[in-house]
Amino acid sequence: MAVGRAARRAERSTRVESEFGAERAAAALDLLELTEFAWHDCHGEVTPPDAVIDDVLALAGGDLAQLVHACRLAVEDARDLRVAAEARKR
Q: Burial code of 37-59, b = ≥16 C-beta within 10 A, e = fewer?
């Protein structure tokens, strides 16, 4: 069964709000949705894998500007995103 964009947004909302705060959660969720569009255009898949979203959020560290960079890196090269997210976790 396919999960729609609105359902994915709802599933992510609690985590995103805890990481970015209630005031910035909507903007962060909007950016993740834009990332889905870009991912689809570049990779032909509806949404990035959950591991990529995890890496994006880890690399962003609750900062919207960093989220922008992490989302771009995810679409451009998810392997580089993985390396950067792992380095941040150390």
A: eebeeeeeeebbeeebbebbbbb
Number of Cβ atoms within 10 Å of the Cβ of 32:
22
Burial class (CB in 10 A: 0-12, 13-18, 19+), 28: buried
- With 80 as the cut, is the pLDDT of residue 68 above it? yes
For the segment 4-44, what is each residue's pLDDT rounded down to a tens digit?
999 999 999 999 999 999 999 999 999 999 999 999 999 99
- The sign of the torsion formed by the CA atoms of 70, 44, 16, 58 equals negative
